[in-house]
Amino acid sequence: MTLNQVVRTFAIIGIIASIANIASITYAYINPETNVTNIIDAFVSSLVFIGLICSYLVQTKDLGGFGLISFIILSIGFILVCGLEWTITFAGPVMESLSPSLNFDNLPSPLIEGMATSFLTFNLGLLFFGISLLKSSKISRWPGLLFIIAIAANFAPPMDDKAWYFINISIIWICWKVWTRKVTAVPESLNSE
């Protein structure tokens, strides 16, 4: 399997996962009582990360050193947020049953620090990667702007998953360009050698 085939596979996984994530988040607004959407989000967000990897792999040369650093920060933040999502989905109900006074809006230390670190790293990654896309990308400047808008959505009340709409649309946008072969990880002439 060539690098371009791997990247195209990552692209289709990113597109499907992002669409599933958007559908799950939208359904959670319709039926907020169900835990099914949290389970879907926890699983699908790790697959959305594959789309994020694709978005970087096809632009490594254009994004340069700042793009690499911003991608690393965003990756760390993304992994932390995925871990946080798994914790809230699967450990949250158990923690609430063991300690009914525990409230996710007023978590004790060190849980609150872990949540804040995840949130801060993720938002810094969105900011830096969004700037690197706006500054250097030849294929996807608009997704860079959507990453930055996602930060504002993260802080806009009510605190919910609305930022993921912008993040998923950005990943779909870039992955679609990869899937339709508008951009490749390496030139096709080099890939066949």
TrEMBL record:
<feature type="transmembrane region" description="Helical">
    <location>
        <begin position="7"/>
        <end position="30"/>
    </location>
</feature>
<feature type="transmembrane region" description="Helical">
    <location>
        <begin position="65"/>
        <end position="91"/>
    </location>
</feature>
<feature type="transmembrane region" description="Helical">
    <location>
        <begin position="36"/>
        <end position="58"/>
    </location>
</feature>
<keyword id="KW-0472">Membrane</keyword>
<keyword id="KW-1133">Transmembrane helix</keyword>
<protein>
    <submittedName>
        <fullName>Uncharacterized protein</fullName>
    </submittedName>
</protein>
<keyword id="KW-0812">Transmembrane</keyword>
<feature type="transmembrane region" description="Helical">
    <location>
        <begin position="163"/>
        <end position="179"/>
    </location>
</feature>
<feature type="transmembrane region" description="Helical">
    <location>
        <begin position="111"/>
        <end position="134"/>
    </location>
</feature>
<feature type="transmembrane region" description="Helical">
    <location>
        <begin position="141"/>
        <end position="157"/>
    </location>
</feature>
